[in-house]
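All the exercises in this workshop are built on plain-text protein records. The record below serves as our worked example for the rest of this section.
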Amino acid sequence: MKAHLIFYVSDQKASSRFYARVLALEPQLDVPGMTEFRLAEGAVLGLMPAAGIKRLLGDRLPDPARAAGIPRAELYLLVEDPEACHRRALDNGAAELSPLLPRDWGHEAAYSLDPDGHVLAFARCR
């Protein structure tokens, strides 16, 4: 199974630049309407313009642009150096929610909001 997590974004190019810098990855796909980053074997982060999904699915889908800035998804990544990843996010326009701290579930995790309001967490096992 391959999993695609797709964030609806207000500006695909700006979001693509943000995630390329934060993840230190180049997109594996970058065409009008979709940018994809391979996160791990079988996991892909997609960035799709909010207007694009609205055009694709029509009026039955509530307009994602109406929820702009309201957290509606979280990308939780286990990485070797969560503090460095979190710092890259902040340096590239993310807003800090929480610094790197021990969490009840056995991880240390830092949280921020990406420019579209999605929660971004970088963590490691303690």
Q: What stands out?
A: The radius of gyration is 15 Å.
